[in-house]
Description:
By secondary structure, this protein is mainly α. It has one domain. Helix content is 57%, strand content 0%. Helix 3 (54-68) packs across helix 4. The radius of gyration is 15 Å and the shape is globular. The protein starts with 16 loop residues before the first helix and ends with a helix.
Amino acid sequence: MENRVRMPTPHLDELDPITRHAFRIWIKANPEVWIAFVKACFDLWERGIRKYGAKTIWEHIRYEHDIKTTDERGHWKLNNDYAAYTARAVADYYPQFKDFFEFRAVTGLKRVKAEAA
């Protein structure tokens, strides 16, 4: 598995620059989340599953980490918004996952675009 997991430098073009920058900082500061997310994607793919929900993977990661963590120092903050961004980064970085997730418009961007107009 280790040879398949690479840290992303996602472009995530549909995100506004502030959100994209915040996500890049967060994902680089939390490589264990990225690794767990990518591993889950590959595990599902290897079982023949070609469509899956990013939020389901996200909640699984949250659950698994909470079960294994015994102190507050190891507690992650998993922002629910980042589940969708992480899925987009996986699809950008690993072409086989291009259609693995169903992507919807990021709602916060509508407000940002409207304010810019």
